[in-house]
Write a structure and sequence with these properties.
Number of domains: 1
CATH class: Mainly Alpha
Number of helices: 3
CATH superfamily: BFD-like [2Fe-2S]-binding domain
Number of strands: 2
Helix content: 40-55%
Bound molecules: FE2/S2 (inorganic) cluster
Radius of gyration: 12 Å
Largest sheet: 2 strands, antiparallel
Shape: globular
Structural class: mainly alpha
CATH topology: Arc Repressor Mutant, subunit A
CATH architecture: Orthogonal Bundle
Order of helices and strands: EEHHH
């Protein structure tokens, strides 16, 4: 789904950045301009990032 309309960014793009090591909105913004225009997507972007960070840090079966 589209998270940031201003920059046409999807939740998938945000998750890809988190999977490459970013763990906060500020870190994701180093790679994508999410929430840097009108800011309306900031809450949704944080939710997507936080849920992805939780999934990434969940213990994995060996
Ligand atoms: S919708 Fe993301 S900055 Fe406007």
């Amino acid at each position: 789904m589209y998270v940031c309309i201003c920059h046409s960014l999807t939740d998938r793009q945000l998750r890809e950045v988190v999977n490459r090591g970013a763990s906060s909105l500020a870190e994701v913004q180093c790679h994508l301009p999410v929430a840097t225009c009108c800011g309306h997507c900031e809450d949704t972007a944080r939710e997507v990032i936080d849920s992805c960070v939780e999934q990434c840090r969940a213990p994995r079966a060996a």
